């Protein structure tokens, strides 16, 4: 049976400085430091520990460590938060990786919490800037000029699943799921094509994918990324690092992106998907689908036949219905299992008959409504700068400017739940242990990363507590232990460390 | 594939029936949606960056994954 689909979302945000030095690296550091300083329960000085990071390991069985410069820049700000998340500067962007969670619904809650942490950071940093200065952050994936930055998802997969089969079978979903989780984009950024080659497309990211499979994340981006860095017991687990998605403003879209992907991955893990939906040319197809808001054009399948993106999605859903009967959907979480397939069917049906009926759920439809309406009102040509401004401002995280907040999007989680998740970890994974230890023993935890915590409890050598099992260290396992331990030393003794 | 075709056909029949009975309601809904969009566009006129063209032009984000 498929493993519990432990997952998480990492988002790189766009950043601009107004009224100051527009250096994205220092602006990102300032933004994060302002948040860490203002929320004194978060200890920014707790360092991220890079010992176990191996971003150059390839799932196909080799390592590029000798030929690639290290991707991590350790001198940059790197904070671990009490909700179990990591808030850091990645290249020239602020990035938040949510804590590990077990369901799409939890992923949505901590992704929304990340958004609110960025909003709070913008407020805190304003007081440090000269009058009129501000740092503006966008939750999007493209600057409209050929530069992209990612919103990556991660899913836990059994190591024994052959990577080649995983890669070939998941590709159809990665190419076609954008029909309901694309964030929409005005214009085209395909190299060598004019901006008005496509007036409006489904995805922020599709133009940037040039390979079917590979290790890169910053150039020649592949639809299936092969980074083999499980942040867990490598004998038992893989972490599928998904770089192909858009950052969503719609809560329903974030939920559906993660929930349907978890279901399709579970089917592949149990070898229940089969090879009916292999694509002929995935790189061409991901662009074709993105460039066709009518959803009518067909893409080529491996066997030479053709299908629309919606037909591929209906095919995957049909398989998922059968899988639910044969295996159950327990591995994606009971509260997700109960509605994911019905929601999936409903959104595909709506997109097929009248996409405008899902403007409250699908980002590209919501944005298209604003862009087309505004163009008609002001008689603007496709590609006009004001339409691009609407695109950009849809993702602007300033509450008084954000157009997504005004677009009438449905919500799935309460603001209380989101506020709690800004400081509280999920209870269902090792993120609970990480977050609670940071909150209770901030002076003793000296370093943290995904699969270990390092304690300094006095004269002894530093103690590293390994967390190689993502589902150990939950509230059920260690909640009482942490609550009862008065000191970090006591906690470690009771853990047998 | 066969199952899916059948499914969407059923959906289409159901839609046709309701449309025939409830045409005036559909028009009302259409007008309500248009009014909502008008309000939304008014709001966009208010909150859209005044120097939208410059803002778009200066928005450059290098070094992303």
Give an overview of the whole structure.
The complex is a heterodimer of chains A (497) and B (65). Chain A is an alpha+beta fold and 497 residues long. Chain A has two domains: 413 residues, 2-Layer Sandwich (Creatine Kinase, Chain A, domain 2), CATH 3.30.590; 68 residues, no CATH class. Chain A contains 15 helices and 20 strands. In chain A, the strands form seven sheets. A six-stranded antiparallel beta sheet of chain A has the order 6-7-8-1-10-15. Chain A has a four-stranded mixed beta sheet with strand order 3-18-19-20, covered by helices on one side. The longest helix of chain A is centred in the first third of the chain and has 23 residues. Chain B is mostly helical and 65 residues long. Chain B has a domain of 25 residues. In chain B, 80% of the residues lie in helices and 0% in strands. The two termini of chain B are 37 Å apart. At the A-B interface, strand 2, helix 7, helix 9, helix 10 and helix 11 of A face helix 1, helix 2 and helix 3 of B.
